[in-house]
Structure formats: structure tokens, C-alpha cells
Write a structure and sequence with these properties.
Jelly Rolls, 223 residues, disordered C terminus
Length: 223
């Protein structure tokens, strides 16, 4: 009985004293190309695709990312708001939920090693998980399509976030999550930006789970 009381006290202290991980907010410009994730500006190999070659000269096409190594394997929530556009239009009228049209991404971008998405509206906010290394060219996994489960993407597999996505499982080995706009080609002339908010799992929950595991071990040991 005394053991149970001690363990209960430990659990309560863990939940009360453990600080929650702060929400992360990141600005994603309309020029952010998800297929350039993991690349280094200035060293992307050129292609026969002229649109691709122009994009390699604009630094903002390299998409922003966050570190996911401390997230405990899942991301409870990602939300996005703002206005951007896949062509020059001021002010931009599109948003992270996507535009009404569709377009297939040119093959030159996919050849860098990241899959495209199928039947997804232009201007939709996309995400892609990577390790610390740049993706190997021509190793993109199968593309996800509109209607597929977007909460369990593979490494290098672009997935749809839109205005929001919950309970995303971080693939094994992933250290970074990149964000970009869905487009067919020529990201360098896009305009606007969206604000993306990532809600990590609270540290208190993780500590509580560790406490529950320890309590269960104690009960089995002294039963």
C-alpha cells in the first residue's frame, strides 16, 4: 500500500511539474517548394526543365523545416492560415486549403527523391519528413492521392496538411519536417505566405506514461 502511495505521488508530481513543449509557429512562403526539401541552395543540379532551372536561382524555394526529434513519435496537430498564390497576384487570394484547379508536378522536381501528390488542389499546404541527409535522387516512394490517409506518411513521401491535420505519425528515422506549397512548376514567381502552427505532445504526458509504466512494474513485483 505504501508503495502504491509513493508511486501515485510521483505520478502527480510528474504531471504537475513537467513543462509542456511550446507550440511552434513557422512562416512558409508561397515560393517554398517541397521537392527541394533537404537540398542546399546553390548546389542543386540543373535539368532540361527550364522552369526547374529558374527555381534553383531563388533561395526562398528551399522550404522551411522544424526539428521533430523531441516529439515522441507523433504530432498531435498542425494548423495553417494565411494567403498565398501559385502565380503572381497581389494581393494573393489562395490559402493553405488549396485552389480549385489541379496540376501535375513536373518530373524534374520529383527526380530529386521526394514523391508528388495526386488529385490535390493547387496551393494546398504540403509536408514531407526527412532524415538529416538529403534525399537520394530517383528514390521517391509512391505518391499519396486525395482521399488517402495522410497521417502516416513515409520518409520522402509528400502528404497533405491543408488548413489542418491531426495525429500525424512521424516515420522512423525522421528528424525534420518540411513545409511547402503544392504547385506544378515555377515556384519562384509565387506570392504570399501562410503561418503554420505545430502542437507537440506535452512533456507532462510523456513523463506520466513513464510513471505509469514504473507503477505497473511495482505492482507486478510485489503482488
Amino acid at each position: 500500500m505504501r508503495t502504491l502511495l509513493v508511486m501515485s505521488t510521483v505520478l502527480v508530481c510528474a504531471f504537475v511539474s513537467a513543462p509542456a513543449l511550446a507550440d511552434l509557429t513557422i512562416t512558409v512562403p508561397g515560393t517554398a517548394c517541397p521537392y527541394f526539401a533537404g537540398q542546399t541552395f546553390g548546389s542543386i543540379p540543373l535539368s532540361a526543365d527550364n522552369y526547374f532551372n529558374v527555381d534553383t536561382t531563388v533561395s526562398s524555394v528551399i522550404p522551411p523545416s522544424i526539428d521533430v526529434t523531441g516529439f515522441g513519435g507523433t504530432i498531435p496537430s498542425i494548423t495553417a492560415a494565411g494567403a498565398w498564390q501559385h502565380f503572381v497576384e497581389n494581393p494573393p487570394t489562395g490559402g493553405p486549403g488549396g485552389y480549385t484547379d489541379y496540376d501535375l508536378t513536373h518530373q524534374a522536381y520529383i527526380d530529386l527523391g521526394i514523391s508528388t501528390v495526386l488529385n490535390v488542389h493547387l496551393d494546398t499546404l504540403l509536408g514531407v519528413f526527412l532524415t538529416n541527409a538529403a534525399p537520394v535522387p530517383l528514390t521517391a516512394p509512391q505518391p499519396l492521392a486525395l482521399g488517402d490517409d495522410m497521417t502516416q506518411p513515409l520518409l520522402q513521401q509528400t502528404f497533405v496538411i491543408g488548413t489542418g491535420l491531426q495525429n500525424i505519425v512521424i516515420p522512423t528515422g525522421a528528424t525534420r519536417l518540411f513545409f511547402g506549397l503544392h504547385n506544378g512548376y515555377e515556384w519562384s514567381n509565387n506570392v504570399g505566405a501562410v503561418e503554420v502552427t505545430v502542437v507537440p505532445a506535452p512533456a507532462a504526458v510523456l513523463l506520466g506514461l513513464l510513471g505509469l509504466t514504473a507503477a505497473g512494474w511495482k505492482l507486478r513485483k510485489f503482488a
